[in-house]
UniProtKB/TrEMBL annotation:
GO terms for biological process: Mo-molybdopterin cofactor biosynthetic process. This is GTP 3',8-cyclase. PANTHER family: MOLYBDENUM COFACTOR BIOSYNTHESIS PROTEIN 1, MOLYBDOPTERIN COFACTOR SYNTHESIS PROTEIN A. It comes from Terrihalobacillus insolitus. Catalyzes the cyclization of GTP to (8S)-3',8-cyclo-7,8-dihydroguanosine 5'-triphosphate. Its cofactor is [4Fe-4S] cluster. Keywords: 4Fe-4S, GTP-binding, Iron, Iron-sulfur, Lyase, Metal-binding, Molybdenum cofactor biosynthesis, Nucleotide-binding, S-adenosyl-L-methionine. GO terms for molecular function: 4 iron, 4 sulfur cluster binding; cyclic pyranopterin monophosphate synthase activity; GTP 3',8'-cyclase activity; GTP binding; metal ion binding; S-adenosyl-L-methionine binding. [4Fe-4S] cluster 1 binds at residues 27, 31, 34.
Length: 340
């Protein structure tokens, strides 16, 4: 018999189901909408080794979350594959009772070298970000002059290793809307679900405004004119992407419409930053520092109480408030720090 789970609920009765762990804040890319090179330049102070949670510390926190209801874990960053031996972390996380699924979000560049070890460690799924198939557009977006080829190789390596692959494309007006159809055409018959993400107002440096959002409707209409689509049912409650299949039966896309069709009501996600802070929303301004408590010798019981208290007091519904026109300007955490 396993240990019993204590399902906890927040102020809006949302359970705690998913844990997103950012393992590092550094990245090999400088995507213009996430880590603009002019801000994340030479002088930018990233976290040092000591400030990052160790794998043991991550496991300790994840174990407690699992006891409180968490079933799924996603590893992210920065670029999570810049953290050495990530496969070891995957292996350890999978041993936690109650954890059913581990996934990874990555820009894909390091997958040719790492995909097999990750799969062998028990990783099931990987979301690979690729915002354009055209080299000039992609080079500009990633801020490092990298062509699409290394990412496509990463996608292929993940497929060959037996991982389930989804490709994520953030769409921003004036940057890459020209790529919606070329990306759809490219991935349609590759056995890979392509998911379009509306550009969000995360962080403080990406110059977001509503005019820069290419909406779910724009995206679906654009694809549908050339490659007709039919909407399909959600796979499970709380799934964030609206799903569409191509009418000819070959291929599927998803659209994550956090701006024009927000889904806070079913948001069961908690986020752990690379330096051990808990954030109850992607748009939060501050987190709850666990690292200091872990390093000061907090007991298991106290840790559990702390997590219960954080989640039970959760009232976040930023995207719904944005849709209602109620958000005011405030400092937010950066996407590259918390990992999406
Ligand atoms: N480096 C990894 C990657 O790019 O997949 C993992 C971290 S990255 C922050 C996670 C995801 O957030 C990526 O798919 C990225 O495109 C997305 N993202 C970053 N900034 C965003 C924004 N302002 N709006 C929507 N998605 C964003
Ligand atoms: Fe790096 Fe991912 Fe942000 Fe691009 S989106 S800068 S790959 S963390
Ligand atoms: Fe969840 Fe916050 Fe996003 Fe709403 S805005 S879906 S509460 S992370």
């Amino acid at each position: 018999m396993g240990k019993k789970k204590a399902f906890i609920r927040d102020k809006f009765d949302r359970p705690l189901k998913d844990l997103r762990i950012s393992v590092i804040d550094k990245c090999n890319f400088r995507c213009t909408y996430c880590m603009p090179a002019e801000i994340f330049g030479e002088g930018y102070r990233f976290l040092n080794e000591d400030q990052l949670l160790s794998f043991d510390e991550i496991i300790r926190v994840a174990t407690k979350f699992a006891k409180l209801g968490t079933e799924k874990i996603r590893l992210t960053g920065g670029e999570p594959l810049l953290r050495q031996n990530l496969d070891q972390l995957v292996k350890q996380l999978l041993q936690i009772e109650g954890i059913e699924d581990i996934a990874l979000t990555t820009n894909g560049v390091f997958l040719p070298k790492r995909a097999k070890r990750l799969k062998d460690a028990g990783l099931k799924r990987v979301n690979i970000s690729l915002d354009a198939i055209d080299d000039d557009v992609f080079k500009h977006i990633n801020g490092r002059g990298v062509t699409a080829a290394p990412v496509l190789k990463g996608i292929q390596a993940a497929i060959t290793a037996g991982l389930e692959v989804k490709v994520n494309m953030v769409v921003k007006k004036g940057l890459n809307e020209s790529q919606i159809l070329p990306m759809a055409r490219h991935f349609k018959d590759k056995g890979v679900i392509l998911r379009f993400i509306e550009f969000m107002d995360v962080g403080n440096h990406n110059g977001w405004n509503m005019d820069a959002v290419i909406t779910k409707k724009d995206i679906v209409d654009q694809i549908d004119t050339e490659l007709p689509l039919v909407p399909v049912e959600q796979n499970y409650f709380g799934e964030v992407a609206s799903r569409y299949q191509y009418k000819d039966g070959v291929g599927e896309i998803g659209v994550i419409s956090s701006v024009t069709d927000s889904f806070c009501g079913s948001c069961t996600r908690v986020r752990l930053s690379a330096d051990g802070k808990i954030f109850t929303c992607l748009f939060a301004g501050s987190g709850h520092d666990l690292r200091v408590l872990l390093r000061d010798g907090i007991t298991d019981e106290q840790l559990e109480e702390k997590l219960i208290s954080i989640w039970s007091n959760r009232k976040d519904r930023y995207s719904d408030e944005r849709a209602e026109g109620k958000v005011t300007k405030r400092e937010k955490i950066e996407m590259s720090y918390i990992g999406g």
